[in-house]
Input
Amino acid sequence: MRAKKACARRRPWAGVLFSSCLLLALPTAASAATAKPAAKAAARPAASAAGFEIAAAPAWVVPASLDGLPTLPASPVHLLLMDDQTRLGPGGSVHRYQRALRQVNSSAGLEAASQIEIIFDPSYQKLQLHELAIWREGKRIERLNPRAVKLLQRETQLERQIVDGRMTASIVLEDLRVGDRIEWAASLIGDNPVFEGKYVDTQWLSASRGPVGLVQRRLLAPAERKIQHRLTVADATVSTPARSDGLRETLVQRRAVPQFRYDPLTPAEDNYADLLEWSEFGSWAEVAAWAERQFAPALREREPLAAKAAEIRAASADPEQRLKLALDFVQKEVRYFGTETGASSHRPATAAQVMRQRFGDCKDKAALLVNLLAQLDIEAVPAMISTTLRQSMDRRLPSPLAFDHAIIAVGRGEGWLWLDATRSLQSGPATERAIAGLSPALLARAGESAPLATPLARDQLRAEVRDVFHYARLAEPGKLVSEATYYGDLAEALRMARANQPAEAFETALAGELLRFYPGLRRDGAVEIEDVPGRNALRVTQRFSGGDEVWRFGNSKGVMISDVVLNAAMSPLRLPDMTPREQALAVGMPGLYRQTVRFDFDEQAFARDSEAPFNESNPFFELKLRSKGSQRSAEFGAELQLRAERIEAAQWTAYRDTLQKIWPRLGTQLGLPTIAPERGEALRTALKELSEGLRSGRVKAATRVQQEARFDLVAIEHMLASQRVPTKLRAKLEIERGQNLDHLGRSEEARRAFEAAIELDPTASEGPAGLAVNMLLRGRDADAQQTAEQAMKLAPNDTAARYTRAQARYMAGDFAGASEDLRTLLLSGGGEVERGYRGIWLHLAQQAQGRDAMQASAAAVVSGDKPSWPQPVLRMLRGELTLQAALARAADDKAEQSGRECELYFFAAQKALLERDRDQARRWLDRSVATGVVEFIEYGLAQRERARLDERRL
Output
């Protein structure tokens, strides 16, 4: 009747098993089926094979009826029956009988069904095997062979520094087939003497191997013994059949039990919903008195600690300092290791033994510390807590099995200071090491009537983070100093992580979050890690430099922005996913989290000061946000008090919606003007003069795009002159400058801008891509192809650079190469407009080679009476539309008419050239250029073709 292993331990120091629920020997069908597979532990044959016997089932057992078993949902394995029957005899004797019936439904269930493991403690238990058989096609096949039983000493908790002496009787069935049923029965006789003859147990009413047809738990006990039980599942029945033999029978049954599925996101105590508890302890007072008796021998033995007590008294007369020294000794000089065989599961080792071996488990170390403090005249009492049940202790039966960890309580006036002797990674005075946020604690002394509440964690300071960026000049790389201080649990977890991995890996992990939020930063020197004097806290300082990627342009080039991530407040609130839940959600560690992100500038960054607060308060958390700016700084602050440890399923939607509302505020942005405040007036004057020039006609701009290009150029010139933009963003400005110059026909100036961009940021593909277009317009077709290929290497998925190479190949007369590029582009997908232009060029390239242009461009044709532009151009080339009809379609959109006519006349000229009608081609090229749409590639190519025709005429 071994209870299921705790599903989750949320404290790294809480690996101590104080509960005999993990030490009772025989696993019920529920526990054997529900426990997750244990970590692979070293196994060796037992010293003697006489660790079990074959015997008939006891006469008092009443076989469970299999009549009327319910239909179960599909599963690789069905547990048709899980039957546990226990009889209590005189003198505290316990006989536990178990019978199980499994059915294999598919090959996926063969492995899980074929292994039978019975775990017991040979120091007080005797194992009897009653039967083992396979039912196949209605026939019973006996499989109970003593030689098939392997007795293994398996210390499955060794990785948690616990040796419990348990033994495993392991049977692996041979020749198991789909459709077989496995029936087996066994008994364990004996009980842990540590409970002094009182009966306590926990049993599961579900299984994780699969759904269960019938779970039955039967207890026979002398009528005079007062044994309580508790269960919470609504579909279980409890009956007390009448008897005449002086025994009381309690029968618990549950049918059609769903498969237990462990959810790591569910609060640990919720995984106990299917637990059936038994306890002969009538009250918490009885449990406290029992605990006092277990601790008493270890507390009476003073001599082994006399020398250490004298040493501490000599070192200080201050009680607080003495408490700290005693705590340091037990936490750091007595290592954690548990030997929990038999009564040692709950009875501490003597002081002499612990001092001799210099190790002990939680109860050993708690007793040692209380003993030592008594010799220093400091009041202290051992206490028992649960690391999993948290605040639900009031819903458990009074029992030693309600606890799995031992700590101590130090007297503080009318209250207590709760300390954990196993937490070797703590620092600072004892008051800083006090634990919070655990379950109520039961003092191990007579007279205690109930567990006492321990401090809540919601008011504990968990983390303080301060990230400061400093920029001597905005145009140059800055520096970041990140100082994070972690308190209490988080400090100890960080110390543990630091001790368990190489320094480089640890530092890389620390820097990972910051580098994800602020890409491109480089670490400056080693991470500085130091304990905070007078606190159980750890301070981590990291330094970074560089990082152009910290800044990017916003929706306009007038503002560059940086992400500001308040991760110290964000992480405790982060949801695993947005899926609605049917179970409660365990949220982050309650407590107080603070973070500040600050940007300092040595030059004026902003025109004026600003400040904006934001507060959110709800039952789950309280969040205070503040942003504040001056002319040379900007600061963002967050203070989160996480109040709740769990979010009930009914609260899920409200909690999620609340987080979605505040989430953008935790991941916000800092916007920085790219034009220096002192240049603002000059920019306004220049824009005003440009507007007047355009209005008067003194400045020419044939289209809206050309007007915008002129305004953009004025703004970009002032941005570059302000020298506030870092290198990579300056490269982007040069690219945009080059594109605007090309739109105005100033191709040589544009070339210089693109070349400047490439020099500033050789890793960006946009510079070579823009220069390739510029070279194409200037008739440098070979250079355009080479530069487009450079862009393609930097950005292999950039279809624009391949398209430019296709055009350059066509203009250079490499029609086969152009066709290859255009076919690749058509196969890559793209929208209707893109496919239309690619089809146009492919049609011309194929026609130039004397190939089937109609077939080649068919894939780019869109059906319909009035397909979108440039389909009329493609149809005109294919002979499906006249030039006049295509011109009519160009006029459908007056705003785009000039550009469309520019394109249409250029492609009509190409068609004429391929048909060797040069005079017609000249006329169409002249009309293309006459549109004045300089920003269109076809305009520049029309100019090139017209000049080439003139050269041929000469």
User: Anything to note?
Assistant: The mean pLDDT is 89. The chain has four domains: 23-36+51-58+72-261+269-280, 285-443, 461-552+559-673, 726-812.
